[in-house]
Amino acid sequence: MSSASRLRDGPPAGARADWSINQDWTAYSDAEHRVWTQLYDRQAEQLPGRACDAFLEGLEALDLGRGGIPELERLNRELGRLTGWRVVMVPGLVPDEVFFEHLAQRRFPAGRFIRDSAHLDYLEQPDIFHDVFGHVPMLADPVFADYMQAYGKGGLRALHLDQLQHLARLYWYTVEFGLMQTPAGLRIYGAGIVSSHAETAFALDDPSPNRLGFELERVMRTPYRIDDFQQLYFVIPSLQALRAATLRDFASVYRRVSHAADLPIEAVLPNDEVIARGTQAYARTRSAAVQ
Ligand code: PHE
Ligand code: CO
Q: I want to staple 145 with a disulfide (CB 3.0 to 4.6 A). Which of 83, 107, 178, 259 is the partner?
């Protein structure tokens, strides 16, 4: 799940003040459960050797493949035991402050609905497959669990400092589309990649995108595209390194990036650590829409 700043109204009818709703698990149809199982089976087969160990271990520990859409009550018992996180259902995109407040309390807001069986590769609003399959396994990792909570607290600060655009890029390039360098090779930890069959292959193997070493200010200066495969992935050396790079107070970082120009998505700069220089061949065939 992510946030939508344009939604400034209160929660919709039937939702609580924090925008959460009941999962009402028994109301899912057999067809909806089958969509989950189809998506799960496809990713569970593709991800070994491609997703990072933390993701694969979380997936296993949370038993998300026991058949059908997971029941949150059971999932939350397991997740709570591992890292103290839990998942709450929301009707769709929620306002930024609501989203950050949940994260700061170790609650992950997830959409209740699931995509249609005719659109398994659907990309629009995050559904329960993206949110739970994509995001929740990483929340079973203690280091990543702390990072996400710190991000929530940082989000509340960034709102007051009017720095959300910069902080949102950090979320995008780590939580959603992050790659990790491991002794066994490049691995995925970003939820937007692991929940997408096509981008899982693209992010690791396609010659088109640039793959650059993660550097906080570089990330904050780089816009991202929301409508297609990424043109650029940032690579962290480890989850510990990501946490260490984001522990410091961002006030001075925000000051510097606010006075620096945004960078073109396809740029490779002299100071970049180039893991793989992309051809950008795929992006050239597509129209650009960046944020
Ligand atoms: N250190 C950040 C700040 O001072 C908070 C943060 C931590 C943001 C981790 C993102 C990730 O605002
Ligand atoms: Co997401």
A: 83
Q: Indicate which residue's Cα is closest to atom 12 of ligand 1.
A: 154
| Confidence check: pLDDT of 20 > 70 | yes
Q: How far is the CA of 103 from the centre of ligand 2 (A)?
A: 13
Determine whether the shortest distance from the Cβ of 246 to ligand 1 is under 6 A.
yes
Query: Given the CA of residue 158, which atom of ligand 1 is nearest to it?
Result: 12
**Tens of pLDDT along 140-179?**
999 999 999 999 999 999 999 999 999 999 999 999 999 9
Residues 199-253 have pLDDT tens digits of 999 999 999 999 999 999 999 999 999 989 999 999 999 999 999 999 999 999 9
